[in-house]
Amino acid sequence: MSSKSGIEPLKLILIICAIAFFLASWLVANVPIGESVTWVSALFIVILSLPSYYFLIRWIGFRWGVILIVFFGIFPIIVEAIGITTGLPYGEFYYSDWMGVKIFGLVPWSVAFAFAPLIFGSLSISAKLIPDWKLQLVLSAIILVLVDMVLDPAAVVLSIWVWLTPGPYYGIPLTNYTGWFLTAFIASLILHQTIQRINDVQQEIPIEVSSSLFISLAFWTGFSVWSGLFIPIGIGILLTILNGYYLLKTSNN
Fold first, then answer.
1. In a domain, 253, yes or no
2. Dihedral over alpha carbons 77, 82, 87, 93 (to 10 degrees)
3. Is residue 72 packed enough to be buried (19+ CB in 10 Å), middle (13-18) or exposed (0-12)?
4. 0.70 exceeded by the pTM?
5. Which of 147, 196, 224, 226 could serve as 232's disulfide partner, Cβ 3.0–4.6 Å?
6. Is there a contact between 91 and 173 (Cβ–Cβ < 8 Å)?
């Protein structure tokens, strides 16, 4: 449903949330959080995932929505557990305790809620930019790499994860981004193929599913501003504008 006289109520709420999270990022950048309240980080990740989950289920139905949410919750846990154990495909790193209890003693449980909204969002944006589905998968992976170029430097500053062999991009090795591209491409392919096999659903994933990514980008771009991470600031602003343009564009335009 679109509005001819203004912004739709749900989209207005998303704008307000993005602004609120942008401002809240100042607290994260400037106010130390003690180890006794590290559960706040995990709760924050879960809350951020909810808008995308809501729009996904509203579009694709409860059954398939839950299946996709669960699958793309388990997927990153397995991939990152392998990555931490072997160093592939990202490079050698480990998680601190900031994101909650670790599954297998390796990957925080909250990672299950962190990855899915990103892949849902990146594919929905790429679907708006390119009609060819094969190129959409490549673009989706590129978008997710760019998103990670905003998120990862902030995570390093906050010591959410630690690289054993630091690299040239704010201490992050380039292997992290080749690994992210590979992971994102595989995840995008699985998501696309699954959607294609679901009956009674429009084939193009709706842009509203990128809502969590939009808010997350606003937050981490804000953190980059307060922390002086200049390259992530530029990338974050461009991605937020791109995401916001398509997210807020009504169907009658």
1. no
2. 30
3. buried
4. yes
5. 224
6. yes
